[in-house]
Amino acid sequence: xxxxxxxxxxxxxxxxxLKIALEQLLGAPCYHMVEVFQxxxxxxxxxxxxxxxMPDWDKLLDGYAAAVDWPASAFWPELSKHYPDALVLLSVxxxxxxxxxxxxxxxxxxxxxxxxxxRAMVEALFAARFTADQHDHDACVAAFNENTNRVKTTIAxxxxxxxxxxDGWEPICNALRLPVPAVPFPLTNTSQEWxxxxxxxxxx
Length: 204
Fold this sequence. Notes:
CATH architecture: 3-Layer(aba) Sandwich
CATH topology: Rossmann fold
Strand content: 5-15%
CATH superfamily: P-loop containing nucleotide triphosphate hydrolases
Largest sheet: 5 strands, parallel
């Protein structure tokens, strides 16, 4: 199965909502960081990719119709080239709001999810394709804005969808030429929900 959607947005830009929405629209799984937690055998591939040794994308992403969120979104240049017919979906939000959200959630205390290799992979990924210091405001915001600008100036407009969570279903469905579902767009994984899961030990 070839990817139909390549996500190019950073974590905390509505990527978990996108995962759920795309799975509903495409009828197949969407790759997201939660998939790495469920497939620890993927960690080595992503770590190698962060070091410049790209995996067999078709093998790693076999069975998935889309990929959003880190680690996949860090490799949107490679994935968009490998899957030339895929829509490139850049999820965005206000950079300062994004920064605050990361500090209250994913960058607050990443931990290792019971797998030290996962933490090593993330550190290598961020050093190579984001910033090594996730608590440096200026570095993080600069990396966020640089990624947004790079996607917009690299991907052809007829292949690119710039989207934010408040846009809901319509732009995605229009870009994929699919009908709009008769249900509300799934808005999930807010900072409050993330904190509640962490307190209940769902996130360690």
